[in-house]
Design a protein that fits this description.
Layout: H1 2-28, H2 53-81, E1 84-88, E2 94-98, E3 101-109, H3 110-134, H4 139-142, H5 148-152, E4 174-181, E5 187-193, H6 200-213, H7 216-220, E6 222-223, H8 229-239, E7 250-253, H9 262-272, E8 275-277, E9 282-285, E10 288-293, E11 296-299, E12 302-305, H10 309-312, H11 328-333, E13 338-340, H12 351-354, H13 357-365, E14 372-373, E15 377-378, H14 382-390, E16 395-399, E17 409-410, H15 416-428, E18 433-437, E19 443-447, E20 452-460, E21 462-465, E22 469-471, E23 476-480, E24 494-503
Parallel strand pairs: 3-24, 5-14, 7-8, 7-12, 12-13
Antiparallel strand pairs: 1-2, 4-5, 4-21, 6-24, 9-10, 10-11, 15-18, 16-17, 16-18, 19-20, 20-23, 21-22, 23-24
């Protein structure tokens, strides 16, 4: 009897502990709102999604207090590693800021990512073929697939590139494709970034920091590696050298330490083991690019440029540029140096051109798009312009050639004055604006000062194009840290998360 009584007591204690644990689990997500948008962790019924169950268990076991401690450790690690970015205030004063990383990762099943990856590779392949066609045969205009005026009136169309084709017809060697998930959980392409896309260094640093401060995630999940990116980029640059050489010399060309993405320029140069240079470190002689060294001149075979087209060569573009290399453009056109990304790629990440990408995929590849994009209204077309003006309260209006989230008007949140001002801008310069329906960006659990709450996110994977195409396993997840905000750009208060592609 004594034995059985003891056994029953132990069973009761075990049952009580288990019951408390179950109550804690439900309590953890009790006030979490997963109904206003598609959430990556919870369904509308507040049930944990299959791929997030392990992560949810880890979060619940730690509890909010312990997670806050890990978050503090994360910020300390970021400070110690010197991970930062620069923002400029209205008075043009630069301010260094610590990179904001939230410790609750984005989790995507590998089976889902494989489909997305194929769609991204398809899209970038078509975009590169489009750029090459624009500067050479111009067949897409003759077949009336894309209006030629739309391209030739773009500020990023470089007439001097006509007749030139880089190796493998790879113009945008490094592409950053912005994805969102809509209210139904469908991944959509929101934007193409093909000139000098940034953010990949933060994707890599996020993973390094997370391995340091939250190692348990990588023992519980089988996570796809992302650390081969620098090696892939190095070989992509090698492939894009026009004339093969046994001992190639490559460089990262930066505008300098005051550029907002300088941390990334320095990071990538270090990771690849190549020189980080400014325009003053390079010179041209007999249409060959050389780097100044203490031992004399050194021939440069490929340049990863982080300068906009206008500043690259004062002999061809902006005459007052002090950060470019005089004569560089001619060297590139003579195939004496490779430049990634190619000059003139901006014609394909013009937001007005974005609306034609699905047609490009069908036209150049004979395939249906594997990943959809957001419906877009072109304000230079009267029918679309009238619709945008009449329905501006329901739409998001964007400058066709701006980046960083600047100049965007979200109609549902704009004042009457702001909407009236935007309408006047559209009427004045319709070619410079596009509009899209307000997609409700998906959310992920994010640590706030006092709780864990849903915050809107997007995702920027990176695609390398040379002889072949490589898509990163995931990308940079950007988070709108302000409650209710959908502006994820770090320059406007956004943060980031590690993106884990996992076998589940």
């Amino acid at each position: 009897i004594l034995y059985h009584t003891r056994y029953l007591n132990l069973a009761f204690v075990y049952f009580t502990v288990l019951l408390k644990k179950c109550l804690m689990v439900s309590q953890f997500w009790k006030n979490y709102d997963a109904k206003s948008a598609y959430d990556g962790y919870l369904t509308e019924e507040n049930k944990i999604r299959r791929h997030a169950k392990i992560m949810s268990g880890i979060l619940e076991r730690h509890g909010k207090k312990k997670l806050q401690e890990i978050e503090k450790n994360c910020q300390s690690t970021i400070s110690a590693r010197g991970i930062n970015f620069r923002v400029y205030a209205a008075n043009n004063r630069a301010e260094e800021k610590k990179w904001p990383l939230d410790i609750i990762p984005r989790i995507i099943p590998k089976s889902v990512w494989n489909k997305i990856s194929k769609g991204l590779a398809q899209r970038v392949k078509a975009l590169n073929l489009f750029i090459d066609d624009v500067y050479n045969k111009k067949k897409i205009f003759k077949d009336n697939v894309v209006p030629k005026e739309l391209v030739f009136n773009s500020p990023y169309y470089i007439k001097e590139c006509d007749g030139f084709s880089p190796k493998y017809k790879a113009w945008s060697n490094i592409s950053g494709i912005d994805l969102i998930r809509n209210i139904n959980g469908e991944y959509l392409v929101l934007e193409d970034n093909l000139r000098v896309p940034s953010g990949v260094s933060y994707m890599l640093e996020n993973r390094m920091v997370m391995r340091d401060v939250f190692p348990e995630l990588f023992t519980r999940y089988k996570v796809s590696s992302i650390h081969q990116y620098a090696n892939k980029l190095y070989h992509c640059m090698e492939e894009c050298i026009p004339k093969r050489t046994e001992n190639p010399h490559m460089v990262v060309l930066t505008p300098g330490i005051y550029n907002s993405a300088y941390f990334e320029h320095s990071f990538l140069a270090e990771q690849m083991g190549i020189a980080l240079v400014e325009g003053k470190d390079l010179f041209v002689e007999n249409d060959i690019v050389y780097m100044k060294t203490v031992k004399g001149k050194l021939k440069v075979d490929c340049i990863y440029r982080r300068l906009d087209d206008n500043f690259l060569d004062p002999k061809v573009f902006y005459k007052e540029s002090l950060i470019g290399v005089p004569g560089l453009f001619k060297c590139w056109k003579k195939a004496n140096v490779g430049i990634v990304n190619g000059i003139g790629t901006g014609i394909a990440d013009d937001k007005a051109i974005y609306s034609y990408v699905n047609k490009m995929i069908v036209y150049y590849l004979g395939e249906q798009p594997k990943i959809n994009q957001v419906e877009t209204f072109l304000c230079h077309e009267k029918k679309d312009r009238d619709y945008v003006i009449e329905n501006i309260s329901k739409l998001v209006v964007k400058p066709a050639n701006a980046s960083g989230g600047y100049g965007i008007l979200i109609g549902a949140r704009a004042s009457k004055k702001e909407k009236d001002e935007m309408i006047q801008k559209i009427k004045s310069k319709p070619r410079e604006f596009i509009a899209q329906p307000l997609e409700i960006l998906s959310t992920l659990p994010t640590i706030t000062e006092s709780n864990i709450e849903p915050r809107h996110v997007d995702l920027r994977p990176f695609v390398l194009s040379g002889k072949s195409i490589y898509v990163t396993s995931g990308g940079l997840t950007r988070v709108a840290l302000r409650k209710g905000s959908t502006i994820v750009n770090s320059s406007q208060g956004g943060g980031s998360k590690d993106t884990m592609i996992v076998d589940v």
